[in-house]
Amino acid sequence: MKILLLLTFISLHHIAGNKPTMIYICGSHYAKKYHQTPNCRGLSNCQFKIIKITLTAAKSKGMTLCRWEQ
User: Fold this and answer.
1) Where are the domains of the chain?
2) Does pTM top 0.85 for this prediction?
3) Rounded to whole angstroms, what are the CA distances from 61 to 25, 39, 64?
């Protein structure tokens, strides 16, 4: 069972590639972009709390990568 879990983890990690699993978003209700670093230029205008969430959660909210990090 432990081997199966380990193989599943390795497979999922391989699929994710170099994409970060945790990203940053502006806490505004209207935010549409996510950021790979908390000091991204795109977050400089955020007047709300900067929140760290998973990439999966951000994408499920319809968010896309900030243009400064593409």
Assistant:
1) 19-69
2) no
3) 11, 22, 9
CA atoms of 33 and 53, how far apart (whole Å): 12
Distance, CA of 2 to CA of 22 (rounded, Å): 25
Contact (Cβ atoms closer than 8 angstroms) between residue 32 and residue 64: yes
Spatial CB neighbours of 28, under 8 Å, sequence gap ≥ 6: 46, 47, 48
Q: Tens of pLDDT along 14-51?
A: 555 666 699 999 999 999 999 999 999 999 999 999 99
Amino acid at 15: I
User: How would residue 3 be classed by pLDDT, with cut points 50, 70 and 90?
Assistant: low
Contact 46/27 with Cβ under 8 angstroms?
yes
